[in-house]
Amino acid sequence: MADVHAEGSRGDDRHRASILVVDDDSRITTLLMAALSKDGYAVTVVNESRKVVSMDLSSVDLILCDVMMPHMDGFALLAAIRERVSCPIIFLTAKTDEDSAVLAYGLGADDYIRKPFGIAELRAKVRARLSQGSRRGRPLLHFGPLDMDLQARQIRVDGRNANLTDAEYRICALLAEHPGRAYAPMQIWEACLAAEDDPAADDMDSDATAAVRVHLSNARRKLKALGVDPIRTIWSVGYQWVA
């Protein structure tokens, strides 16, 4: 099937957001194309996951990706592209086990939606991820050799980019803007990762904690590789940024 493109018709800022939908099921992609285009987004649909590897993804603002696809599943695709994209990536998956969620977060996914899903839930998560990606704070924070550019949404150490994913950056930005303050995993989830229609905390505490733990582990690994380690684990409490 040929790739499909659609431009949103609304006149607000959302028409500038570009969403890539990767799913081999044409029924799902037709549904997503209609809903997201109606919300004003520019939507591109790719039914063959292997095509994404060779695409120019520099202008993509968010990726919706199925997990179970022929030839190259969503996990393999994410592993292939994650180093060159920093936009939010949301998995669409029929898998319900925690190990799959941990694997997704470990590869750099920002969120996942279990199938079957309601279109209102998906639209809310997309809106939340794009909104989080557009927030701005103070323009520049300095911590020794580490610079955090809140407008470019980048962390550099001695001029070298840490290449954090969107979720990893958002968590680091939350901690760095409040150095010394300890945040519990659920506080981090609610501030940086949760969509507005997520279930109550009691219903998803395990998934949320696992997501935060994996994203923080990935961020710390990348920062340590550049010679800095500004995030501390406060046992039985959470995490804090050490200025």
From TrEMBL:
Residues 138-243 form the OmpR/PhoB-type domain. Keywords: DNA-binding, Phosphoprotein. It comes from the Bacteria. Residues 138-243 bind DNA. SMART domains: REC (SM00448), Trans_reg_C (SM00862). The modification 4-aspartylphosphate is found at D66. The keyword Lipoprotein does not apply. Gene3D superfamilies: 3.40.50.2300, Winged helix-like DNA-binding domain superfamily/Winged helix DNA-binding domain (1.10.10.10). SUPFAM superfamilies: CheY-like (SSF52172). Residues 18-130 form the Response regulatory domain. PANTHER family: REGULATOR OF RPOS, RESPONSE REGULATOR SAER. This is Response regulator transcription factor.
